[in-house]
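Translate sequence into structure tokens.
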Amino acid sequence: MLHWRKALAILVLAVATAACSTAPARKDHHPMTYLALGDSYTIGEGVPESGRWPVQLAHALRAEGIALQDPRIIATTGWTTDELSDAIDAAEPLGEFDFVSLAIGVNNQYRGRDVEEYREQFAALLERAIAFAGDRPGRVLVLSIPDWGVTPFAHAEAPHRDSISREIDAFNAAAREVCAARGVAFVDITPVSRARGAEAAMLAGDGLHPSALMYGEWMRQALPVARGLLTGPAPRSPQ
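Result follows.
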């Protein structure tokens, strides 16, 4: 009986050794990197860092098992398209990222800038975002401009609120067309900003910028799109 057990133990050890020798080498899995470009809506004016929509998005993706780092954010309240471009210049070299988001344009509209100028400058920023994503348009996500015209701030400061909505629609239409031409995902959060943007719980203390709860609404709309971009194939742009 002892000889039988000893022979069995030797056999088990031999099988285990052979399995180890033929198994593929274990690879280290590094979290994917994320660059978020924008203005007050990306930096999260008036909310804690954890409340920003790009940070919420990264946390939600990690909860689903998608290893994405918290974003490197280049965004400041008040920036227009050209000011964001200048800030990117100042931050270079940034290198390459696995995922890039872009949300910009509300301050172009607020300052009365021309929509065709916005189209041109947004297109240039989108090209830069694609380059930061390793020339992979399928790793870039754009968020639409929310409608600040429904907020208490607009009710007090802007007598022509209907024109705000019309202008934001025109800016968003331009951005959507630019994204479609380049194969970049466009997430339209403008309807939810209009439907819920006047609710006290959805606003930061200034009555203008979104609260973390509103950013959570945006994140939930962006989440399935981002999930698809990060788990599916991401071909590079043709050279």
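Note: The longest strand covers residues 34-38.
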